[in-house]
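W.,

You were right to be curious about this one. When I first looked at the sequence I had no strong expectations either way, so I just let the prediction run and decided to look at it fresh. Below is the sequence, 425 residues in total, followed by the output.
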Amino acid sequence: MLSYYLTGGLGLTLASVGAHVTLIWPPTGVALFALLAWGRPMWPALWLGSFLVNLHVGFPPALAMVIACGNTLGPVLAAEALKRTGFDGRFSRARDVVLYVAFGALAGMAITASCGTAALLAFGVQPAGQAWTVWSTWWLGDALGAVLVGPALLTLYRPAADDTRLGARFEPIVAWNGLLVAGLFSLSPLSPFGTGLPPLFALPFLLWLALRFDARHATGAALLLAVLTLWGVFVQRGPFVDTDGTAQLLRVWAYLLTLGIASLLITALRSESTRALAETRASEARYRTLVENLPGAVFRSTADRRQKPIYLSDGIEAISGLPASAFTSGERTLAELVHPDDAVADELAASLTRRAPYVIEYRLTDASGREHWILERGRASSASPGEACWIDGVMFDISERKAVEAELAGHRQHLEQLVAARPRH
């Protein structure tokens, strides 16, 4: 209640329609945070905070009560919609950003603006001709508060589960100090350059924090720049204040909304790409484990007579006596180990011409001079139709099978000789 009341009082100091409608209304972010973090039991405190704020600006109690009902109903319905759609307050997915902006900032705040505008018109505080101006200003101000304040509080309350500091220990300290200095020089009344520095001067440090760290840093950076901007507006100094002291509140609103949404989207997309990279690496690790446990060698090679390996698993060492790196580096070739009497290259060329899978058996002499029988299965793959770019395949050592087959053939021949030598009666 107290935070709602205090932030509401600050927002009304920049009222742009009368003394009660503003383009900058932080309490909506406070309300959404409270409801998403602690649930519906928080609504009485929010209602009381809104009621007291509206009493503070001089509204009669009845009108303050009606406006407080609208200011509570919008965030309550928005929070319920977010919970039902699977929203995650850590903002680690782009989907969460879209849901929050759609339901929390736009749809939910349209309810508060509609209720508040209707109450002002019904009590005669605003003429009917001002209805659109009141409603649009109310809606935009509430949406900005939801985008700027809500995510900063939610990410601080629920840090991302995959929070990993990508940089050194002192990197965030450097980034935050750079952001503060750039913000002070370009946005605050302390700037020694007057209005000479553009508002985007601090943007690189915001991007640094959003790309390198989790959502707490990104949303906190956006909120810090918002505070510095509003400080300059309050004291009528800075890039958003004209020479006559008039604040350009619509430009302030657009700048702050851009900071809020950009910080959320960048950190969400970074989190998604980080998870995708981790999943890819895990998949590669599972594939390598599978390949390493195969009783043979998996390869990808060029689709020519030399079959220069592009990838070759470690299983080749058991077959050739040489590490895979000896072949992938070009130091040795598999072709030079093939027995000269086995026309492997000719059979391979014929298979590639037919664009069909092939099965070849041949002899290979390893580094120690030992001969192995190899069964090779492969298939040509291409990046574009009609052009064979590489061969994917696997090599198995079938020497034991060949030895057994030779032994069986010898026994068969011996039996045939015995049968042939048996006397006939």
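Here's what jumped out at me. Strands lie at 15-17, 21-22, 296-302, 309-312, 358-365, 371-381, 390-397. And, maybe more interesting for your project: The chain is about 60% helix and 10% strand.

Coffee later to discuss?

I.
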